[in-house]
Amino acid sequence: MANIKSQIKRNKQNEKRRLRNRTMRGAARTAVKTAQKAMTTGEETQASLLSAIRTLDKAAEKGVIHPKNAARRKSRLMKAAQKAASAPAPVADEKKKKAPAKKAAPKAKAEKK
After folding, report:
1. Rounded CA gap, 54 and 109, in Å?
2. CB 19 within 8 A of CB 26
């Protein structure tokens, strides 16, 4: 424990900030996971995506995470959303296994005369 009065105060401030930042970081992570889960299930994708982006922006604005970190996470979310929107939904009944490809028999070399 610190003996200097200013350092004692600094430690108290750091602890308060750590707890506040922890909740913001946790909220951002939860929002991102919720958005990713919504993409896989197809439920309210747009709303959850906007909520995740808003949460990441707030965390970056307050200095909880680095702005480039927030931008990278948002980019990944948007890329996944585009991929999920363009891909057709898988149907369980139509899943077919492909037969393994057969190797062609090697051609015999023509004999020289």
Report:
1. 68
2. no
Q: Which tokens in the block code for residue 6?
A: 């200013």
Classified as helix, coil or strand, 19 is: helix
Residue 22 and residue 13: Cα distance in Å, rounded?
A: 14
Q: What is the pLDDT of residues 22-55, one digit of tens each?
A: 999 999 999 999 999 999 888 788 999 999 999 9
The two counts, helices (H) then strands (E), for the chain are 3, 0
Is there a contact between 53 and 77 (Cβ–Cβ < 8 Å)? Answer: yes
Backbone Cα Rg of the chain: 27
- Look up residue 61 and give its amino acid: E
97's CB contacts (< 8 A; 6+ apart) are none
